[in-house]
């Protein structure tokens, strides 16, 4: 086991490089931008379809109105995502271009929509067919969104633009500067669509679906889902946000499957597509990546060690809503050899059991999308359309997770009890290296890697920090970033509570990484959550350019700050005072 852990850890730089891939990040950012649209459309479908489960059918005129809202949002998802993905990728490209030679991301978004219509949407009399404007066109949207910014990059980086006299206002000059890359992109996709259709006899969006169909089928099998959800857990085990690496690669499958399932069930059929966002939210990651809900409950209510009991009780509420970073870094689970097996095995077992229920017992797979923070058992029942077997599956998954985690929990708890007893009896000191638990070893390794001295554990004195930061009463603003804005909200709230308690003029909010790029200068300090540490170099570069301070933390330090508003405030004030 130790050798396996070391092997996984040595691959961490490679995993971080993958997580920094601009194309995967662009898909993730594009999807995050479109989540409100997806959830909005799902509300209308819930209202339209759920009553039918209980024997009530809306009149046709009301039903058509409800479906109109769905078709007007999810029905154009590809158009929305091609724009948001292209914008995100443009931001990554601009990051490497000179400041005076940047790509206009608004122009890229508009042109990407045009190019998607030309390449992948069927023209019909009076307009365009809607067949590939929704989830069916996502793969085509990815292709367009990846190519258009690079076409712009070719021209902009070489300064191949129309130049107007200096007297012409900037916004007019920018319009003409965009004309050459805009025209080139549109011409390439217009000509490409004609050549491709004449050569294959198929629309590009239909062809690419057929091309990747074997991959879709393989990914939905037992081996495929084991690889997908096992990889998410393995990435998290080394401290990297797993879903941000894996999910961009399967987002198109997720969205296509959920819409296909809905259409199948609406037509009276049996929905069998397993890979969907709700499968990840409410089956594979009950309580968060690693299906940690039952482990956290054991820590809170069964642990004999003071460490696990404290961590479990502090984490149980966030974990119920799928925010499990407190237990991941606080127990810790990350890089803890004792907990490696259940952390990887529980998500895989959960999804295999779910697939068995769908394939062999006739249960419908997920047909609705709900917010990922919906407690898993509730989300499982609702998102399957109140399937009767869901009421059996939900508690069964909790039992399976408990069985998988319990032996390893008991071993780890016993280790910590023995250590705490030895410390209490004076047999060893709290920092005795020979008595280190995996938790202590991981924390020490993090500090050594960061070159952090031990004395940094103590926060700056409250009065001095308050004076340094508050000064003349000017408001200070702190932004905390993580993958989705959930974990970061815990630290942001702690800083705000500390400021309110001590009457310091500091405000703090949370965002998902990527949402901050246009508002960096609105903040005095930007803090990056530990699971996104691989993005810190990019964040620091952006912040340094604009004179904004930035920081990141170790996992255990971050968890400790979220639990102590005074220390969280001191942490922020000390950084802003430097």
Could you tell me the strand content as a percent range?
Answer: under 5%
Using only CA atoms, what is the Rg? 26 Å
Structural class: mainly alpha
**What would the average pLDDT be, to the nearest integer?**
84
Q: Kindly state the percentage of residues in helix.
A: 55-70%
Q: Walk across the major sheet and give the strand order.
A: 4-3-5-6
What is the tally of beta strands?
Answer: 6
Separate helix tally = 25
Q: Please outline the major beta sheet.
A: 4 strands, parallel
Instruction: Flag low-confidence runs.
Output: 433-469
Overall outline: globular
Instruction: Give the distance, in angstroms, between the N- and C-terminal Cα atoms.
Output: 43 Å
Identify the quaternary structure here: single chain
Tag the structure with descriptive keywords.
6 strands; 578 residues; 4-stranded parallel beta sheet; mainly alpha; 25 helices; 65% helix
Short structural summary:
The chain is mainly alpha-helical. The chain has helices spanning 2-10, 12-19, 22-53, 60-71, 77-94, 105-120, 138-157, 170-177, 179-200, 204-219, 222-237, 242-266, 277-284, 293-301, 306-320, 325-330, 340-360, 376-383, 390-424, 438-450, 462-470, 487-502, 536-545, 555-563, 565-577; strands spanning 123-124, 127-128, 476-482, 506-512, 525-528, 549-552. The protein contains 25 helices and 6 strands.
């Amino acid at each position: 086991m130790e050798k396996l852990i070391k092997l996984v850890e040595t691959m961490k730089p490679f995993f971080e490089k993958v997580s920094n891939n601009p194309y995967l990040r662009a898909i993730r950012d594009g999807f995050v931008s479109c989540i409100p649209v997806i959830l909005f459309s799902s509300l209308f479908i819930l209202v339209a379809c759920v009553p039918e489960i209980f024997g009530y059918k809306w009149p046709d005129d009301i039903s058509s109105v409800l479906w109109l809202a769905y078709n007007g949002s999810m029905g154009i998802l590809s158009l929305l995502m091609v724009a948001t993905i292209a914008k995100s990728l443009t931001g990554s490209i601009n990051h490497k271009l000179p400041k005076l030679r940047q790509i206009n991301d608004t122009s890229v978004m508009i042109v990407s929509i045009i190019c998607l219509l030309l390449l992948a949407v069927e023209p019909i009399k009076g307009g365009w067919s809607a067949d590939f404007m929704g989830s069916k066109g996502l793969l085509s949207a990815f292709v367009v969104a990846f190519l258009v910014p690079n076409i712009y990059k070719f021209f902009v980086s070489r300064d191949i633009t129309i130049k107007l006299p200096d007297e012409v206002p900037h916004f007019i000059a920018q319009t003409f500067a965009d004309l050459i890359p805009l025209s080139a992109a549109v011409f390439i996709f217009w000509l490409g669509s004609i050549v491709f259709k004449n050569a294959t006899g198929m629309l590009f969006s239909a062809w690419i679906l057929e091309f990747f169909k074997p991959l879709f089928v393989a990914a939905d099998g037992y081996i495929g889902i084991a690889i997908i959800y096992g990889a998410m857990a393995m990435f998290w085990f080394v401290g990297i946000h797993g879903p941000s690496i894996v999910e961009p690669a399967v987002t198109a499958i997720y969205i296509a499957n959920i819409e296909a399932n809905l259409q199948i069930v609406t037509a009276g059929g049996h929905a069998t597509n397993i890979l969907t966002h709700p499968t990840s939210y409410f089956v594979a990651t009950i309580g968060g990546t690693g299906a940690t809900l039952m482990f956290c409950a054991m820590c809170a209510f069964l642990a004999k060690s003071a460490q696990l009991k404290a961590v479990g009780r502090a984490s149980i509420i966030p974990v119920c809503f799928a925010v499990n970073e407190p237990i991941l870094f606080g127990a810790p689970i990350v890089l803890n050899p004792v907990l490696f097996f259940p952390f990887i095995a529980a998500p895989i077992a959960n999804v295999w059991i779910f697939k068995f229920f769908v394939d062999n017992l006739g249960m419908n797979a997920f047909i609705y999308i709900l917010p990922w923070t919906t407690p898993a058992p509730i989300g499982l029942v609702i998102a399957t359309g109140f399937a009767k077997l869901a009421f059996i599956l939900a508690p069964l998954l909790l039992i399976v997770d408990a069985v998988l985690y319990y032996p390893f929990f008991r071993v780890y708890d016993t280790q910590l009890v023995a250590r705490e007893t030895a410390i209490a009896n004076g047999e060893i000191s709290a920092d005795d290296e020979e008595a280190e638990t995996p938790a202590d070893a991981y924390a020490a390794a993090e500090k050594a890697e960061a070159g952090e001295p031990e004395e940094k554990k103590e926060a700056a004195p409250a009065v001095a920090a308050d004076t340094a930061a508050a000064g003349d009463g000017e408001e200070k603003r702190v932004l905390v970033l993580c993958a989705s804005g959930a974990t970061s909200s815990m630290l942001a709230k702690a800083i705000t509570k500390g400021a309110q308690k001590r009457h310091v003029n500091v405000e703090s909010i949370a965002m998902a990484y990527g949402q901050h790029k246009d508002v960096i200068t609105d903040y005095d300090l930007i803090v990056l959550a530990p699971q996104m540490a691989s993005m810190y170099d990019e964040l620091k570069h952006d912040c340094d350019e604009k004179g904004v301070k930035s920081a990141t933390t170790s996992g255990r330090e971050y968890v400790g700050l979220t639990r102590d508003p005074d220390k969280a405030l001191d942490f922020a004030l000390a950084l802003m005072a430097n």
